[in-house]
Amino acid sequence: MNLKSIGITYLLLSLAPMQVIQAKNGFEPNTANDMKSLATQSVDADVNSKADENPLLTEWKGAFGGTPLFNLVKVAHFKPALESAMAEKLSEVERIAKNSAAPTFENTIAAMERTGRTLDRVEAVYGVWSSAMNNAEFQAVEREMSPKLAAFSDKITQNEALFRRIEAVYNLPEKARLTPEQQRLTWLYYTNFVRAGARLKPDAKARLSQINQQLAGLFTRFSQNQLADESEQFLALKNEAELAGLPQSLRDAAAEEATTKKMPGAWVITNTRSSIEPFLTYSDRRELREKAWRMFVNRGDNGDAHDNNQIITEILQLLAERAKLLGYPTHAHWRLDDKMAKTPERTMELMEAVWKPAVARVREEVRDMQTLADKEKANIKIEPWDYRYYAEKVRKARYDLDQNEVKPYLQLEKLREGMFWVAGELFNFNFTPVTNVPVYHADVRVWEVKDKITGKHIGLWYFDPFAREGKSSGAWMNAYRNQERVDRNITTIVSNNSNFVKGKPGEPVLISWDDATTLFHEFGHALHGLSSNVTYPSLSGTSVATDYVEFPSQILERWLSTPEVLQKFALHYQTGKPIPQNLVDRINRASTFNQGFATVEYLASALVDMKMHLAGSQKIDPDAFERKTLSELGMPGEIVMRHRTPHFGHVFSSDGYSAGYYSYIWSDVISADAYDAFVEAGGPYDKAVAARLRKYIFSVGNTIDTADAYRAFRGRDPKIEALMRKRGFPVNDSKKGKQTLVKPKAKSR
Ligand SMILES: [Zn+2]
Fold first, then answer.
1. Would you give the end-to-end CA distance of the chain in angstroms?
2. What helix, strand, coil percent values describe the chain, rounded to 5?
3. 305: which of 151, 160, 692, 697 lies 20 to 30 Å off by Cα?
4. Which of 392, 522, 550, 721 is catalytic?
5. Which residues contact 267 (CB under 8 A, 6 or more apart)?
6. Ligand 1 centre and the CA of 428: distance in Å?
7. CA 291, 293, 297: angle at the middle one, nearest 5?
8. H-helix or E-strand containing 513?
9. Against a cut of 0.85, is the pTM above it?
10. Measured between alpha carbons, how far is 544 from 702 in angstroms, rounded to an integer?
């Protein structure tokens, strides 16, 4: 899924070291014992000796260049740590701004890269608590700190003396003698400062800062409301009859959830994607499907204390006002200016080119489902709460493919080993489990990543796979520490997070094909971070434009269905036998099945996002705007937006992805086109193409222009035909389909 910064407007700078990349969607154990042992004995003596010391402010200790001291963190540590770390960074920045020596790259830009080391560490842990360890106590801290973090970020971008120095370096004739990476970094600082208002007059700057602080508060309230509706609302099933149609794994998970909720003897379907979607797919009880569906699509839209509509109106107005202040017609124009797409119009062109064939496909899908329902004498008209249920039946009828037939072969731990194997084949990575580093929850496990050939340490990979209360729904990757070598070699620490349902204790966790795809997707982000080979932290790993960052993750999804992975790792959890070829063939034949649904539910969200942010400063009623926009688009009545506005966290819970949800399809055009490079070369494990992928895409971070990087990898710009083929849409009917994604002379820099 995407990118959000915990430092909220900190991401305005795009220099935020703490990025979270979400999924579009949702044992050799590092057990509780490990946690306890770390908490009690293996703590460094000098930490213990200073009883008052805030563990968030100390250097990370131990092996691998130090790791986060998760085991020592208490919620009460965050506020003082953030305040102290912000003050430290401000004084570091002030020293650079006040330097009496003439501005140079070294004393200004490189010096800036050395600031805020403590804050980076604090924010890395703060981000983990925000996304994976959230509770009421922490939420109070977030509400207080998010406007302060926004104001802090503005204090830096609005520091006039500092900006004059950055601008001076940017205009230095000697700049041409800097390395390309240094020139790119200088350009990035200059651009980000200008985009954040560094050129504005003092009163405009003051207003901008006010807006950013108000936004930060609103973003926090939005996500807290969403989390409340996802954790407080649920569907309780009271008897066997209400479980009709549900597979055993879902029943087990629902029973576990009921135990957690202290409702023994019942079954609980939580109001999150990972529970609701399987329920809608399998429940034979239509009225319960409707109930679950309504609960899920009305998150944040119930007219109660957690309603997000008013917040959305305020956010949209503030974003529009900010864009005007910064000299852009709309927020969408401001947002797109430094992206690969460059303008909202380019994104609309792409989305509209795909929209029509996708809607046409939905009509066919609905017809097929209606025919089947009629044959069963169900006496219904297909409604949104029927779509997944009947799609599954059509899948069975047409492709003889039952998702429950696939699931026994998809063991979470085996697939994880499969991902490791792929990383070894493509990038020469080798993963070994480590237990001597602290984790924040007993579910989290850690692996060391080394180069398979040289044995060189590359980084650490933390894995937090399971759903639990206080954890955001969906799936995401983040980096606790970026790779860099400004002063010394610093290796990266990345994590993958998802919300798989644990099921029965002691049994292997079986996941769906979609979940397996998400698993590979997030691992693609992790490999992007792990492959990083740059000098400066602001350019490291996944710190690339949001419409490019999903390319490495989406392309990695493709290796799940390679015969090598399926033969070695898709093993039946009871027999250990690999998935039969006949089943694989049926999976492949069904690969474009239901793409009308998937594309339309996604594009509806992406189009509403873009149109809301193109609407300017008018006061928007989100419900009315959503209805009007969808009706103008000709949204099929049988589908609802993947994320309706009142819970569209990508767009309203931070400043990173608004007018940016289009990024997934933009990136998917690139990833589909890039995968074809493997196909053309003879297969997904072609060593030469893999080496190019690593050299030009995975390892370069933001050190080169994304369009240039892609051309270096592929020899040309991305074309959209591959995406249309991948989704099973006609290629020739669409003139747009012949276009390349990037205009031939894309503006570089
Ligand atoms: Zn992603």
1. 26
2. 55, 10, 35
3. 151
4. 522
5. 236, 237, 242, 243, 251, 254, 255, 257, 258
6. 22
7. 125
8. helix 513-531
9. yes
10. 5
Q: How confident is the model at residue 655 (pLDDT cuts 50, 70, 90)?
A: confident
Tokens of 44: 């460094």
Distance CA 450, CA 431 (A): 7
Mean pLDDT of 26-38: 29
CA 746 – CA 333 distance, rounded (Å): 17
How many whole angstroms separate alpha carbon 227 and alpha carbon 291?
Answer: 19
Share of the chain above pLDDT 70, in %: 91
Label residue 741 by pLDDT band (50, 70, 90): low
Residues in the chain: 749
Tell me which residue of 667, 700, 510, 672 sits closest to 21, measured CA to CA. Answer: 667
Nearest-CA neighbor of 590 among 442, 375, 394?
394
**Which pair of structure tokens corresponds to residue 727?**
């989704």
| Range 580-590 burial, b when 16+ CB lie within 10 A, else e | eeebbebbeeb
**Which residues are paired to 464 by β-bridges?**
497
Contacts of 354 (CB under 8 A, 6+ apart): 599, 603, 665, 720, 723, 724, 727, 729
Q: What's the rounded mean pLDDT across residues 498-502?
A: 87
Query: How does pLDDT run across 281-336, given as a tens digit for each residue?
Result: 999 999 999 999 999 999 999 999 999 999 999 999 999 999 999 999 999 999 99
- Centre of ligand 1 from the C-alpha of residue 496, in Å: 11
CA–centroid distance, residue 664 to ligand 1 (Å): 8
601 catalytic? Reply is no
d(CA 446, CA 463): 6
Q: Tell me how far apart the alpha carbons of residues 417 and 420 are, in angstroms, rounded to a whole number.
A: 5
Distance (Å, whole) CA 461 – CA 121: 17
Q: Report the Cα 589 to chain-centroid distance in Å.
A: 29
Residue 21 contacts residue 553 (beta carbons within 8 Å): yes
- Mean local confidence (pLDDT), 566-575: 96
pLDDT, tens digit (0-9, with 9 covering 90-100), for 407-465: 999 999 999 999 999 999 999 999 999 999 999 999 999 999 999 999 999 999 999 99
Buried-state track 193-210, b at ≥16 Cβ within 10 A, e below 16: bbbbbbebeeeebebbbe
State the angle between helix axes of 160-171 and 180-195 in degrees (0 to 180), rounded to the nearest 10: 140
At 461, list the tokens: 């990979």
C-alpha 212/C-alpha 205 separation (Å) is 11
pLDDT tens digits, residue range 78-97?
Answer: 999 999 999 999 999 999 99
Judge whether residue 188 has pLDDT over 60.
Answer: yes
- Ligand 1 centroid vs 521 CA: distance in angstroms? 6
